[in-house]
Write a structure and sequence with these properties.
Radius of gyration of chain B: 31 Å
Order of helices and strands of chain A: EEEHEEHEHHHHEHEHEEHH
Helix content of chain B: over 70%
CATH architecture of the largest domain in chain B: Orthogonal Bundle
Oligomer: heterotrimer
Strand order of the largest sheet of chain A: 6-7-8-3-9-10
Chains: A alpha/beta, B mainly alpha, C mainly alpha
Strand order of the largest sheet of chain B: 1-2
Largest interface: B-C, 94 and 89 residues
Number of domains of chain B: 2
Mean pLDDT of chain B: 86
CATH architecture of the domain at 9-100 and 171-253 in chain A: 3-Layer(aba) Sandwich
Helix content of chain A: 25-40%
Shape of chain A: globular
CATH superfamily of the domain at 9-100 and 171-253 in chain A: P-loop containing nucleotide triphosphate hydrolases
């Protein structure tokens, strides 16, 4: 399919460096992430992909001793500037974690939590509506619509992860970050979520960290390859996998390293 | 010889036997030229066990049971001298004899019967002590000799000693278990005797507590009432006040220390709270009675309130202070046990830290917190010294915290401190109260365990 | 539809949420500060009220150890009270009349004659000579000199009479009054007079009692824990036993006192108020508090160590004694020390078995009548005389210091020797 050259850039990372105490985890990353695309971040363990992901919604702020340098801009606004409120930022940038972490509340309350604290739905019927829409978009509605008051932790692993996706998109973010969302799931649940992502990217920008190159090849439009804190290569997924420019990338793709 | 001295003698004998046995086995092995089955220490230990085990048991049994036998013989002797004494009078006579024996009964109160009784008693005690020393030491020496005789290079000393060791361990465990049975049985036994005199219903549901008992059968006006409701009410009121103080302070401290505080503050505050936990309750009682109660009474007087100098408020406040570390450290543990990934999930949605704590962490930790509160209540209900020193003695059924009330534990102390005859209904009432106390605290503890197990989320 | 798209609404809501955050943090900080202030207030008020007890005013008297009062060959039968009174009369020759003389004698403590007696018994050659000796003043005079009894109050409101005030002022003018450290607090047993009352007897009683507690509960507790954790099969019964022991740890201490009363005193006729019985009661109470941490210490040791020992042919007992027990020792000792410290502060169960008697002599034996330090504190706290307030606080200071030292030792122990697996 012909690439649309004027794809809008949603997230701009310039010279992003991250230190955990004395150790340097990311070395000057420059990367553009486009709107309404799935961008995959791949690379061997410990190479900084998750660290970079967490820079985008400033979850690294939560970690003691973590220092972030450089700039990350969303819609041309540097999210690390003092003018940006981190609580608001995280309503715009949602996150799904590696291991599903539903709150020990009902399914309804899990999804409703975000809208409630941000004051997005003042009336109960509006809240009901938002919950239903989110669950439908996450592909979970049909399975749980009769038991919205059941505990979120009573679902299967795959369902829990979809619940977490519903929870994340309930606050209407622009961007959804996913940190190895399928690594704790079985193949069938994984397939369901991969299908989901193709639908979700119509409304959201998705950045996904994945350990599986095959998954990256399946679902992403652009891929970035990280190695030991450096961004080695990035570009169209097809190009990266069939004709990588960098030798290191090629070694990783063909399984020689990692 | 006193029991301590005999005990030390046995210890010494054991040490000697050990050393002797060790030397002997080395000699035997050298002579026989075969390989020893067990190491020297086991042979030594074997001889020591032979020397000490049986005599020790005899020593303990004798010391425990001979007073009973001696008392029975004394009573027999006295009864032969004056057959028509009542049980009460006999008890008083025996007490007088014993007092005269230690020299604390003035000559003026003594008579020939008492002097004869004392001579007899003295003879019994002496003979018993002498016989005890003789038997214990003789058995010890014989045991040591027997052990030495049995030593041989191929003798399986180690398994023998280990077997004895295992039996000793089992006995030790049995004692720990027997304690519970002992508590329950002794309480129940005395309580049943109490309910012979006072009906159960009056005790559990009566509204008037005034434990006066006629000292002599012909005494007029000695009617007592044993309705325990005022005690239960007083206990609950003071416990409630204590919880009002302890739960907010304890819980919020735990939340702040585990979620917000930096390591330096945590390093100071946590041990600080532990210090509150280590202060003996008699100190809290003194503080309550001599500093808090007068302060409350005087401040109350200035704003027009009348507080008793033994107000439930004073006792409850200090009791609450004592319980703060309890709730704080238990809550701290459960809050820390909530997985970090839940906090991350909430943070990623854009929640502030207090929203995360209030709406995600605390609800997740709720079973543990409820359990902590139940355990703290149990502790407050069973607490004695603070209320003995700061709360009242007279039963008072009221909901006013400015008045003085009394609690179950205070009454147990008041009923028993002093020289009562053991059989009187007053003393037995203390046991009945103790049984109630035991069951309530047991119930709360079991409930606390149940709450945690039933509602705990499994995070894997 | 909601105003969520309105940036003003969002800004206002965000502000409210941050304010709620600040308030919540403030509540937490306030809770900690409150707890801290309470602790500071509690300790400082007790320490402050204990200070008067550590010193006592003495007066230097010139005493003529005349043979009218003390015979040279029987110094222990001397009339030392007479000696002291004679010394006072000699010093104030203008005092005649029985009532005035009685007032004069009142300014001294009954310990004054004890001080002279001790001096003479120590050195009988003093008989027939004149000596100059510091003897203690009465507790009321002492309080007045310390300013705790207001001398400006009218005489009817004051415990110290004007006459006595005059005597004391005269002696003070002659520079005969000195404030000395109150050794009596530490060397004496209990007494009806506050200035003579000391904690020596109670301390000794506490030591004897804790000795019995340690000897009984430590071996039993550790052995029981070893058996339950390492040897016994894991089935329903042992699980029940574990629940049982956990419950025992939470039983109120007064119930143990009742148990001791019913079983040790009334069934076994052991002597009331003896450290033996007190120690046994506390031992039963401490047993679960030793078993539980000991079991935890054993459980923390990884099974690989046991497997390695078995692999080289050690017997089960040898595995426990040679390999597991030494590794668990730090945890066991810490738990034991903490358990003993808690037992040292217990009062209620000991009241039940009668350790509330008035004990003057230091107990020398495990079956002698004794009391313990917390019980002594309780008894002094009940005494209405003013001087006993400071005494009680002083006793508390000593108790808390001892507990602090013991607990600090336990924590040091734990830090130094604890291994993390």
């Amino acid at each position: 399919m012909k690439m649309n050259e004027s794809q809008k850039v949603k997230i701009k990372a310039r010279n992003v460096t991250v230190h955990y105490g004395e150790a340097r985890a990311l070395h000057g990353i420059d990367l553009d992430l486009n709107a309404n695309e799935v961008t995959a971040l791949i690379g061997p363990s410990g190479c900084g992909k998750s660290t970079f992901l967490r820079c985008i919604n400033r979850m690294n702020d939560v970690i003691d001793g973590c220092r972030v340098g450089g700039s990350v801009s969303i819609d041309e606004q540097n999210i690390y500037s003092d003018a940006v409120d981190v609580v608001e930022l995280r309503a715009r940038v949602g996150m799904v974690f590696q291991k599903p972490n539903p709150f020990p509340k009902s399914i309804y309350d899990n999804v409703a939590y975000g809208p409630r604290i941000h004051g997005m739905a003042p009336s109960r019927s509006e809240l009901d509506h938002m919950v239903e829409v989110s669950l439908k978009r996450a592909g979970l509605w049909d399975e749980v619509k009769d038991r919205l008051s059941a505990s979120g932790t009573s679902l299967s692993g795959g369902q829990q992860q979809r619940l977490c996706i519903a929870r994340a998109i309930a606050v209407s973010p622009d961007i959804v970050l996913m940190d190895e969302p399928c690594s704790a799931l079985d193949p069938i649940a994984t397939a369901v979520i991969e299908e989901l992502m193709e639908e979700l990217r119509r409304d959201y920008t998705i950045v996904i960290v994945t350990h599986s190159m095959q998954q990256a090849a399946r679902i992403s439009q652009r891929t970035a390859y990280f190695h030991l804190g450096d961004l080695v290569e990035h570009g169209q997924t097809q190009a990266i996998f069939t004709n990588p420019e960098n030798k290191q990338t090629e070694a990783y793709i063909s399984g020689k390293i990692g | 010889m006193s029991i301590s001295f005999l005990f030390l003698c046995l210890l010494g004998l054991g040490a000697f036997s050990f050393l002797f046995g060790r030397r002997r086995i080395r000699g035997l092995t050298a002579m026989a030229g075969v390989k020893q089955h067990s190491r020297d220490v086991y042979h030594g230990s074997f001889v020591a066990v032979c020397a000490v085990l049986v005599p020790l048991i005899i020593l303990l049994a004798w010391s425990g049971l001979s007073p009973l036998l001696i008392d029975a013989m004394l009573e027999d002797f006295l009864r032969r001298q004056s057959p028509d004494l009542s049980i009460g009078e006999m008890g008083v006579l025996i007490a007088k004899v014993k007092a005269y024996f230690v020299g604390s009964l003035p000559e003026a109160f003594a008579n020939d019967l008492i002097r004869d009784g004392t001579d007899y008693f003295a003879a019994l005690v002496d003979n018993s002590a002498t016989a005890r020393s003789f038997v214990v030491l003789l058995l010890g020496l014989c045991g040591a000799a027997l052990g030495l005789r049995l030593l041989a290079p191929r003798f399986t000393a180690r398994p023998a000693v280990e077997r004895v060791f295992e039996i000793v361990m089992i006995v030790a465990s049995a004692i720990a278990i027997l304690t519970t049975i002992g508590i329950v049985l002794s309480l129940i036994f005395e309580t049943l005797r109490f309910f012979d005199t006072v009906p159960v219903m009056e005790f559990l549901f009566g509204l008037s507590w005034s434990p006066q008992i006629a000292i002599r059968e012909d005494q007029v006006g000695g009617s007592g009432s044993f309705g325990a409701i005022p005690l239960f009410a007083g206990t609950m009121m003071i416990t409630f006040i204590a919880m009002l103080v302890a739960v907010p302070i304890g819980l919020m401290s735990a939340v702040y220390l585990s979620e917000y505080a930096n390591p330096k503050l945590r390093g100071i505050a946590k041990p600080g709270i532990e210090i509150l936990a280590g202060i003996p309750t008699v100190v809290y009682g003194f503080f309550a009675a001599l500093m808090v109660a007068p302060f409350l009474r005087d401040s109350g007087a200035e704003i027009g309130l009348t507080l008793s100098s033994e107000s439930a408020l004073a006792a409850g406040l200090v009791m609450g202070i004592m319980i703060i570390p309890f709730i704080s450290s238990l809550s701290d543990d459960v809050i820390n046990a909530v997985p970090q990934t839940l906090r991350d999930g909430a943070a990623a949605l854009g929640a502030t830290q207090s929203e995360t704590i209030r709406q995600v962490v605390l609800p997740a930790a709720l079973p543990g917190i409820v359990s902590a509160i139940l355990l703290a209540m149990s502790r407050a209900i069973g607490e004695t010294m603070i209320v003995v020193m700061a709360a009242g003695v007279a039963a008072n059924l009221t909901a006013n915290p400015f008045e003085s009330v009394t609690t179950v534990t205070v009454q147990i102390v008041m009923l028993l401190v002093g020289d009562q005859e053991f059989d009187s209904a007053k003393t037995l009432a203390a046991f009945a109260l103790g049984l109630v106390l035991f069951f309530i605290t047991l119930l709360l503890n079991v409930l606390a365990l149940y709450v945690v197990n039933r509602f705990k989320e499994q995070y894997d | 539809m909601t105003d969520y798209s309105d940036p003003d609404f969002r800004a206002a809501r965000l502000k409210k949420r941050y304010q709620a955050e600040k308030r919540f943090r403030a509540y937490g900080m306030a809770a900690i500060i409150t707890a801290g202030l309470i602790l500071v207030f509690l300790l400082s008020s007790i320490i402050y009220s204990s200070l008067p007890a550590f010193s006592h005013h003495h007066v230097r008297l010139d005493i003529n150890i005349s043979e009218d009062y003390v015979a040279t060959d029987t110094p222990e039968e001397g009339n030392y009270l007479g000696l002291v009174r004679a010394a006072l009369r000699d010093h104030f020759p203008q005092v005649t009349g029985r009532r005035d003389k009685r007032a004069l004698y009142k300014i001294l403590s009954i310990g004054a004659s004890d001080a002279v007696e001790a001096r003479v018994k120590n050195d009988p050659r003093l008989i027939g000579t004149q000596i100059s000796l510091y003897v203690p003043l009465s507790d009321d005079i002492d309080l007045m000199l310390k300013g705790l009894i207001d001398r400006n109050l009218p005489e009817s409101d004051r415990i110290v009479s004007d006459r006595d005030l005059a005597f004391v002022d005269k002696l003070a003018e002659e520079n005969r009054i000195e404030r000395k450290f109150a050794f009596a607090l530490f060397t004496n047993g209990d007494s009806r007079e506050p200035e003579m009352a000391g904690i020596n007897g109670a301390l000794a009683g506490s030591l004897w009692t804790l000795l019995v507690t340690l000897i009984v509960s430590f071996p039993l507790g550790v052995l029981a824990a070893i058996y339950l954790e390492e040897v016994a099969p894991k089935n329903r019964y042992t699980a029940l036993i574990e629940v049982n022991i956990n419950n025992l740890a939470a039983v109120p201490s007064i119930v143990y006192g009742l148990l001791g009363l019913a079983v040790f005193i009334n069934f076994f006729h052991l002597p009331r108020s003896a450290p033996l019985v007190g120690g046994l009661v506390l031992a039963l109470m401490t047993l679960p508090r030793i078993i539980i941490p000991t079991r935890a210490a054993f459980a923390a040791i990884p099974p690989s160590i046991r497997e390695a020992a078995l692999g080289v042919g050690a017997s089960r007992t040898q595995v426990i004694m040679h390999h597991v027990l030494p590794l668990a020792m730090p945890g066991i000792l810490t738990g034991t020390i903490i358990g003993l410290a808690q037992a040292a502060g217990e009062t209620a169960p000991l009241l039940m078995i009668g350790m509330m008697a008035f004990i003057v002599d230091v107990p020398t034996e495990v079956t002698a009548k004794a009391t313990v330090l917390p019980a002594q504190i309780y008894m002094w706290a009940n005494n209405p005389e003013r001087a006993f307030v400071a005494r009680t606080s002083a006793g508390i200071v000593v108790l808390l210091t001892l507990l602090l030292v013991v607990n600090a030792a336990a924590i040091y122990f734990r830090r130094r020797f604890e291994k993390r697996w």
